[in-house]
Amino acid sequence: MATIRANVAQLYTPIYDEFMLAAFKEEIQVNAQIYQQIDDKTKEHKFDDLGGTGLWESATEGLGGGVEDPVLGYPRTLTQAKFWKKIQVSFEAVDQDEYALLKQTGTAKQIGIGGRAKVEKDSANLLSDGFAALNADGQFLWDTDHPKNSLETGTTYSNLLSGAFSHDNLEAAETQIATNFMSMDGLPILPSEDPVLLYPPALRGAVKRVLSERALEQPDTTMRNINRFAGSYRPIEWRYLMSSMGGSQTGWFIIYPELEYLKMVWSARPSFTSWVDEDLEYYIWKGRMLYALDAVNWRCGFASTGV
């Protein structure tokens, strides 16, 4: 094969695929830390939640009974959507060294970065929008009156916290969580020992003052009380929660990833390909992915608007 610029350029196309994939992975994603990752090649992913059978009951010798059917939750269907981005460089641009392929490294990386940003923004927006967007049970994701289950709607629970992030409001939140963190059959859900605390950059100072490992004493007290919150939460600052990304400067969230109620369903994980269009005379690079995400149960966590 003759070594001419057009042929040499074709040899570089796999390199740009690697650039795009590396850029997608180079920053730690919050999405992967709080959403359950599921691979599902079907068009729709269906989730059906089942309650337990409640408290055990007294039994009498020689008599039957004790049978109870689990309560069905609120079915949810996640339909994956396709997202992509392409760049192309003409043969003439390469022939004339106007936009030589070796100069396109940054552009190729931007495709990967843009794919990662799309996943992160959608994931954060689901939580930020939860103060006004309906969840599976017909209430907002963060609301004061979630029904116990689909059959017992008279008993309700609240996962909407109050106030700006502070030591006192976090303490009040823990009391509210203890009262309202109940399963569909009314049994207490044991919170994890290190739930995730999500917050935007504007709350960095407040969070560090309350949770920092070096905050051995409760701030702003004359009695030098021990700060019991130090090390009790896994704080994650998430830029995609801030107002310029569709969130707010004040909202804060306590999330329980181990319950797996935040779902990220992949039909096709991010992939990057390249090819040459000999007819139009273009070198083309493309990134694509198919996914859906959702909160299938309000018990994924608790949240406050911060105001």
Overview features:
four-stranded mixed β-sheet; 12 strands; phage-related protein like fold; 7 helices; alpha+beta; 307 residues
3D structure, described in words:
- It is a single chain.
- With 307 residues, the chain is of the alpha+beta class.
- It has one domain: phage-related protein like fold (Alpha-Beta Complex), CATH 3.90.1690.
- Helices cover 24% and strands 23% of the residues.
- It contains 7 helices and 12 strands.
- Strands 1-10-11-4 form a 4-stranded mixed β-sheet. Strands 8-7-9-12 form a 4-stranded mixed β-sheet, with helices on one face.
- Helix 2 runs parallel beside helix 5.
- The longest helix is centred in the middle third of the chain and has 24 residues.
Record field, number of beta strands: 12
What is the CATH architecture term? Alpha-Beta Complex
What is the helical fraction, as a range of percent? 10-25%
Provide the gyration radius in Å. Answer: 25 Å
Distance between the amino and carboxyl termini:
68 Å
Reported for the largest beta sheet, the result is:
4 strands, mixed
Order of H and E elements: HHHEEEEHHEEHEHEEEEE
Strand content: 15-25%
Just give the CATH class.
Alpha Beta
How many domains? The number is 1
Number of helices: 7
Overall geometry: globular
Low-pLDDT ranges: 1-5
